[in-house]
Structure to design on (388 residues):
């Protein structure tokens, strides 16, 4: 497969197939809806030892090489909820995944969602997402059997079940990445924006996705972008690229939208009002779909990291930029030859050892600002509960 084909596969795999590409054969009976009242149809729910109960302990490695261990504890009495839709990771062989979560589906919840358990109760439905196998088949010239409508319908049904059985008027944060973010954008548009439930939306974290916003309104629909601490009912969204490797001029992937007069949202969780700021990243040795999250070298010379996650304070900063028609979170690594820590971070999608430039740092979109995102949601929770 050529680099161009791999790049195209990347776009479709991460964003999910369009409705047109996923249209069902009219002769095929519609799939039976999932019953989300059944516990087994949820990847994560409060009070369970499931994918979101994985250890989040982190080793903090300072610039001088000194280390400390940061423990983690979920809050079983968190005053708000978080509802998560995971990205395209299923290794199932069919066009859509089944309802038995495989290792990548569990692993990505650990990487992207479990840490929010310190500020909210965690809900994540399993859903019959379009699989990588279906997308690969299409890119090889075959007809894709992936059904994007089925994936969306599952999440919509899970959302309705959550509202009916679990919400009880509580505030809720929507969290997604890539295909999951695409689904959440549609869910907001069709089920939340302008509906009574909108008043319960604490915020929406639409990560690794081009969220179309009206520059004059700085909003997705009627939901403004989050621009100050404690602001609620708003959206945080960005796609990330290395500052020295911006989106290629001909890229149609991340950082721009097709809607005339609109632009891709960019909100830096570490600096909501704008500008550059050091980000609080949580990187991991754990892998998703065989892609190592560790950089080419060890995290720090003569330092052994035995915890699932690592923090490298001050190593990475980020700033939302608008350049050459693209809007994205520009990520800068600040290496220091006298610093025993790694001089680079993971996150590039490599093919034959070379990064696919259209992807940017898509693999670590969430890891890059995880500490900041959790902090922002914590402040939003305080503001939301105080207002109630």
């Amino acid at each position: 497969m050529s680099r161009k084909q791999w790049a195209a596969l990347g776009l479709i795999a991460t964003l999910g197939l369009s409705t047109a590409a996923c249209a069902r054969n009219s002769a095929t009976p519609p799939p039976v809806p999932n019953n989300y009242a059944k516990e087994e149809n949820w990847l994560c729910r409060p009070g369970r030892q499931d994918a979101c109960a994985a250890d989040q302990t982190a080793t903090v490695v300072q610039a001088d090489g000194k280390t400390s261990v940061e423990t983690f504890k979920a809050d079983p009495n968190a005053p708000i909820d978080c509802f998560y839709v995971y990205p395209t990771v299923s290794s199932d062989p069919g066009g859509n995944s089944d309802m038995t979560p495989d290792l990548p589906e569990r692993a990505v919840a650990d990487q992207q969602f479990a840490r929010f358990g310190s500020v909210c109760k965690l809900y994540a439905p399993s859903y019959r997402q379009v699989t990588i196998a279906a997308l690969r088949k299409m890119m090889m010239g075959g007809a894709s059997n992936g059904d994007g409508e089925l994936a969306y319908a599952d999440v919509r049904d899970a959302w309705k079940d959550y509202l009916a059985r679990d919400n009880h008027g509580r505030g809720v944060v929507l969290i997604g990445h890539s295909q999951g973010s695409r689904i959440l954008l549609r869910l907001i548009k069709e089920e939340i924006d302008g509906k009574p439930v909108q008043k319960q939306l604490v915020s929406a974290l639409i990560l690794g996705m081009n969220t179309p916003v009206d520059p004059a309104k700085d909003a997705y629909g009627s939901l403004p972008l989050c621009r100050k601490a404690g602001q609620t009912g708003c959206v945080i969204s960005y796609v990330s690229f290395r500052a020295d490797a911006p989106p290629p001029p001909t890229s149609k992937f991340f950082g721009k939208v097709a809607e005339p007069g609109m632009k891709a949202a960019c909100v830096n969780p570490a600096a909501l009002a704008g500008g550059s700021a050091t980000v609080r990243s949580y990187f991991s040795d754990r892998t998703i779909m065989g892609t190592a999250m560790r950089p080419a070298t060890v995290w720090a010379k003569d330092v052994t990291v035995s915890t699932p996650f690592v923090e490298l304070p001050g190593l990475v900063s980020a700033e939302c930029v608008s350049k050459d028609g693209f809007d994205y979170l520009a990520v800068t690594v600040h290496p220091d030859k006298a610093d025993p820590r790694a001089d680079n971070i993971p996150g590039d999608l490599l093919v034959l050892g070379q990064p696919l430039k259209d992807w940017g740092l898509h693999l670590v979109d969430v890891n890059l600002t995880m500490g900041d995102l959790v902090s922002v949601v914590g402040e939003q929770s305080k503001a939301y509960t105080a207002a109630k």
